[in-house]
Amino acid sequence: MPNLSIDQIFKLAIKYHKNKSFKKAKNLYQKTLEINSHHLDAYNNLGIVLKELGNINESINCFNKVIK
Fold first, then answer.
1. Global pTM?
2. Is 46 helix (H, G, I), strand (E, B) or coil?
3. What's the Cα-to-Cα distance from 10 to each of 44, 57, 65, rounded to whole Å?
4. Chain segment 19-59, per-residue pLDDT in tens
5. Distance CA 60, CA 11 (A)
6. Which end of the chain is least crowded, N or C, by CB within 10 Å?
7. Torsion sign across C-alpha atoms 31, 61, 68, 63
8. CB neighbourhood size of 36 (10 A)
């Protein structure tokens, strides 16, 4: 994602998420977290997407990071 800010990447992830393009959203939430590993909204939304994709354990790990 050259030339996109972290906010633009995160907003694009939300757009894909709302359109149920869960794999694309997952990749963009993960990219957001590569840039800022403390982005709580990205962890929360990634947890939701992972749940939708059937990755329950990974989803729980994301939610636990938000709680901590």
1. 0.93
2. helix
3. 12, 23, 18
4. 999 999 999 999 999 999 999 999 999 999 999 999 999 99
5. 23
6. C
7. positive
8. 11
